[in-house]
């Protein structure tokens, strides 16, 4: 397929976190190979497969949580939760970040934490501890912005702290990541699409482009 002459529009559904750190590298890779292709990113409010089935979106990026068995998936990268605080935060000042010190802080929570975030709370609960949620926000970029300008601690996927392809250092400027003092399970980020697009050469090229960018950004 001659991608240089390809004229096509693709709709990609992804979270704010993905858009913050990976949309620009994906756009750049697509533009280099297929300058006439148009990408349209739309919000990912849930994991429902309806938009994929109905052809409203061409590709979805995120946790594979849909209940639709026919949806195709392709692994992109592994992720896990980390803590994020402002540079100079008291939590970083002295000694080890223990479960007690972590839980004693006030926290900002993103509604997208979902089941994986609950695993962190469950681990703290086994120790008789719990996060004190002072602020709740819709997405991880919102949580990071608040953490940057306060003493609140955010819980975000490690991928939100950037990658080697991210050309904008302001995303993580003034922030420090820290390992959680309790076990945090890994989770897999995948690309998802409807099987009717399996054999579509243009869509296959788009999938491979997204896979290449993501694995270059987060190898291993």
UniProtKB/TrEMBL annotation:
Record GO terms (molecular function): DNA binding
Source species, domain of life: Bacteria
Organism: Roseomonas gilardii
CDD domains: PBP2_DntR_like_1 (cd08460)
Record's protein name: LysR substrate-binding domain-containing protein
Coiled coil among keywords: no
Family assignment from sequence similarity: Belongs to the LysR transcriptional regulatory family.
Keywords: DNA-binding, Transcription, Transcription regulation
Coiled-coil blocks: none
Any Pfam family: LysR_substrate
Residues of the LysR substrate-binding domain: 6-214
GO biological process, one term: regulation of DNA-templated transcription
Keyword Transmembrane helix recorded: no
